[in-house]
Amino acid sequence: MKMSGSLSFDQFTQFKEKLLQIISNERNFVANAGNFASLVYHNLSSISWAGFYFVSNQHLILGPFMGKVPCVRIKITEGVCGASVRTKKPIIVPDVHKFPGYIPCDPTANSELVLPVFYQGNVVGVFDLDSQLYNRFTENDAKNLSSLLKYVIDYSNVRPFLDYYEITS
Ligand code: SME
Questions:
Q1: Distance (Å, rounded) from C-alpha 169 to C-alpha 158?
Q2: What is the average pLDDT across 19-40?
Q3: What is the pLDDT of residues 114-137, one digit of tens each?
Q4: Residue 3 lies inside a defined structural domain of this protein
């Protein structure tokens, strides 16, 4: 069953249990990040794209994702993703066409939510969600998804991935 709009407490608990079942026995960060993107894409309603970008040399480079082929590299000075890295805060965009510097990687998107990905207190990337609906994302989504994202980081062996891809915060 798809979970519509903002997650209720029961839906959040259900999602969290499903996620922990999948990631709690696996330490590989790419595998866990990929499964997180898939769970979000397939279980939340009206999501057209969900995935990671990681910080490297003043750019964001595409990581595991679900959805159509997007931009591979984004300058840290640009887009909603860049703004989230610079401010270290989630950014909810009700109408992407009104966001200055918005990068239309997913041409069907009308609203967007970008969450910073923290590792040991530093922003190492973002998790980006797009929707064809306007005004799809709420503060509750940002809060819930950020806490779920933390499980992915905490259960995974993140350091080798960051070193291999020269990911800098
Ligand atoms: N729209 C984003 C770019 C990434 S895609 O939406 C997948 C931005 O403005 O940063």
A1: 13
A2: 96
A3: 999 999 999 999 999 999 999 999
A4: no
Q: How far is the CA of 135 from the centre of ligand 1 (A)?
A: 16
- Residue nearest to ligand 1 atom 1, measured at CA: 103
Ligand 1 pocket member 99 (CB < 6 A):
no
Q: Provide the pLDDT for residue 8.
A: 75
Q: pTM of the predicted model, to two decimals?
A: 0.94
Please give the full DSSP string across 84-116, using - where no structure is assigned: HHHHTS-EEES-GGGSTT---SSTT-SEEEEEE
CATH at residue 120:
3.30.450.40
How far does Cα 85 stand from its chain's mean position?
12
Inside any domain, residue 60? yes
Q: What does the pLDDT look like over 17-29, one tens digit per residue?
A: 999 999 999 999 9
Q: How many domains does the chain have?
A: 1
